[in-house]
Amino acid sequence: MAESQILSVIRMWAAIAWADGVLAEAEAEGLRRLIRTADLTAEERMAASRLLEENTTLPETYLTSMSPESRRGVYRAACRMAIVDHVFSQTERATLARLRELLAIPEDIAHEIEADVPGLATS
Prior knowledge:
The longest helix has 16 residues, at about 70-85. The protein contains 6 helices and no strands. The chain is an all-alpha fold. The protein has one domain: TerB-like, CATH 1.10.3680. The N and C termini lie far apart (about 40 Å). The relative contact order is 0.18. The protein has helices at about 5-20, 25-35, 40-50, 70-85, 90-100, 105-115.
């Protein structure tokens, strides 16, 4: 069974949070809050909670059914997740680049989004 769109989004954000190999408390709390408030089934909520327990990588699923605006929103939130612990590593940069590809966001749009996220160093 394919996972729901919201669980895929949570998985992406978890992958960004884990990209530097550590899930900082600020990152974990943001994900917990999202998991608590998201419209998930009990099974999906359990699966999402497991993403906090072990290093998670980006899913290789393209979310092409999402509107361009939704994909940009996912990317914007992932950028914020990348700097919530006030550390922006090269691994997180590479993970965001991979996410941008998965979401089919043009590079110029990605740069605009990144420029609006305080603390995110563009490279």
